Automatic annotation (TrEMBL):
<dbReference type="InterPro" id="IPR015590">
    <property type="entry name" value="Aldehyde_DH_dom"/>
</dbReference>
<dbReference type="InterPro" id="IPR016162">
    <property type="entry name" value="Ald_DH_N"/>
</dbReference>
<dbReference type="Pfam" id="PF00171">
    <property type="entry name" value="Aldedh"/>
</dbReference>
<keyword id="KW-0560">Oxidoreductase</keyword>
<feature type="domain" description="Aldehyde dehydrogenase">
    <location>
        <begin position="7"/>
        <end position="447"/>
    </location>
</feature>
<dbReference type="InterPro" id="IPR016163">
    <property type="entry name" value="Ald_DH_C"/>
</dbReference>
<protein>
    <submittedName>
        <fullName>Aldehyde dehydrogenase family protein</fullName>
    </submittedName>
</protein>
<dbReference type="InterPro" id="IPR016161">
    <property type="entry name" value="Ald_DH/histidinol_DH"/>
</dbReference>
Length: 455
């Protein structure tokens, strides 16, 4: 919660509503000074041997490992994410830092075949200063990727963690900065105004994970300044339940996708298309799954976000949808919201068109697989999609047709390590993780070296 009079952020525990802490918002002058320090440090850090940069990242990963429980507890206090889930995010972040520490020194260019008396090659180099703006729903894991890739490739960074978890974000970044030269990693606390200043400032890359609206504003800034935009923004991820799958298993997958972390995951299931032949047993099983999830669901990040989620649900109900379970704001402290299953949903409803980002499973019953795929494809986002089907021809058709960065067949979460995807449309642009993120953080220069003519 931002107080415009005191220029500070008040962090509330979403489980109890109690105050966790107060964080001052950086002034425009402080932001400019941070950008200046990062710019001044850029030349020296770019010239630092890749192995030394990697060693610094390894040391930072060890420091984060030592503070893992502290970071997880802080995350739980600020966002309500259950401790074990928060600790899993920290562990993922540690693994990501180690991954980039290993990949950085072997990130390489290539030679070109030119004339015999010349040498031609392509070499990657750092872009310069990177503004990194990270989200609250997985603050350590996401920041580890963007910060790790930017730093190991020789860029300096100005990092603003989300105003919804500034204490966790700052603590994580401080653990990294302690192993880096002065100015290489600058940290700014603040709200959207600070992020907007960084995005429009003297930077060479803006890397942002967050809402589509903010991502579009950043893209406009980058178009004006010439900075590169690396964006992973909102999603409206579909789940197709095809004829022939076990309805209980499909319901468990749907519930995991819709309810994990109270639906506050970038690739959460946002809309479900169920084959009519499977509708009755699937819906019964999904309702039972929702009841089981009720016992282990944490709160939404704050009451403002809960109002957003509940607004989608109430609009859908007013337009003719029905609840099989959930859909009501509970009494008591905190910002809890129950796992909710909606039926009778139509494509015009916001709960089917936009990112709800809460524990809501809106279901649309369709006559066949082709109808499900047609509606799943028709969307303004392009982050991820899941298809549950025993028919490999349907699986093949789906992954080719769905205009998203990631398609998952018969597994709502999962995938091999090192995979990277490019979101599309309103979901962003560029590789936000994986080895390819090193390419996003570097620029390639072509060099032609020839001997002068002999006298």
């Amino acid at each position: 919660m931002t107080d415009v009079l005191t220029r500070e952020i008040t962090v509330l525990d979403p489980r109890t509503g109690e105050t966790v802490g107060h964080v001052p918002i950086a002034t425009p002058q402080e932001a400019e000074r941070a950008l200046g320090r990062a710019r001044a440090a850029a030349v020296g850090w770019a010239r630092t041997p890749a192995a030394e940069r990697a060693a610094a990242l390894h040391a930072a990963a060890s420091a984060v490992r030592d503070a893992a429980d502290e970071l997880a507890a802080s995350n739980e206090r600020e966002t309500g994410k259950p401790f074990d889930d928060a600790r899993g995010g920290v562990d993922a972040g540690i693994g990501t830092l180690v991954q980039y520490a290993e990949l950085g020194p072997v990130h390489r260019g290539r030679t070109l075949h030119g004339s015999w008396d010349a040498t031609d090659f392509m070499v990657p180099g750092p872009r310069g200063v990177v503004a990194v703006l990270t989200p609250w729903n997985d603050p350590v894991a996401v920041a580890a990727g963007l910060l790790g890739a930017a730093l190991v490739t020789g860029n300096t960074v100005v990092h603003k963690p989300s105003e919804r978890c500034p204490l966790t974000g700052r603590r994580f970044a401080e653990l990294l900065a302690a192993h880096l030269p002065e100015g290489v990693l600058e940290i700014l606390d603040g709200d959207g105004s600070v992020g907007a200043q960084l995005a429009a400032g003297d930077v060479d890359v803006v890397a942002h994970v967050g809402s589509t609206a903010t991502g579009r504003a950043i893209a406009l800034d980058c178009a004006r300044t010439g900075a590169k935009a690396v964006l992973e923004n909102g999603g409206n991820d579909p789940l197709i339940v095809d004829e022939g799958v076990d309805p209980a298993w499909a319901a468990s997958q749907a519930a995991l996708g819709a309810f994990a972390n109270a639906g506050q995951i970038c690739v959460s299931v946002e809309r479900i298309y169920c084959h009519a032949a499977l509708a009755d047993p699937f819906l019964a099983a999904l309702t039972a799954e929702a009841a089981a999830w009720q016992e282990r669901l944490g709160p939404l990040v704050d009451r403002r976000h809960r109002d957003h989620v509940h607004g989608h649900v109430t609009e859908a109900l007013a337009a003719g949808a029905r609840t099989l379970t959930g859909g009501e704001v509970p009494d008591g402290q905190g910002s809890y919201y129950p796992p909710t299953v909606l039926i009778g949903c139509t494509p015009q409803m916001r709960v089917m068109r936009e990112e709800t980002f809460g524990p809501v499973a809106p279901v649309r019953v369709v006559p066949d697989f082709d109808a499900a795929l047609l509606e799943a494809v028709h969307d303004d986002y392009g982050l991820a999609a899941t298809v549950l089907t025993p028919d490999m021809a349907h699986a093949q058709a789906a992954w080719r047709a769905l205009p998203v960065g990631t398609v998952k067949i018969n597994n709502v979460f999962g995938g091999a390590p090192g995979g990277a995807a490019q979101p599309r449309r309103g979901s962003g642009s560029g590789f936000g993780y994986g080895p390819e993120l090193l390419d996003e953080m570097t620029t390639t220069k072509v060099v032609h070296v020839a001997a002068p003519p002999s006298r």
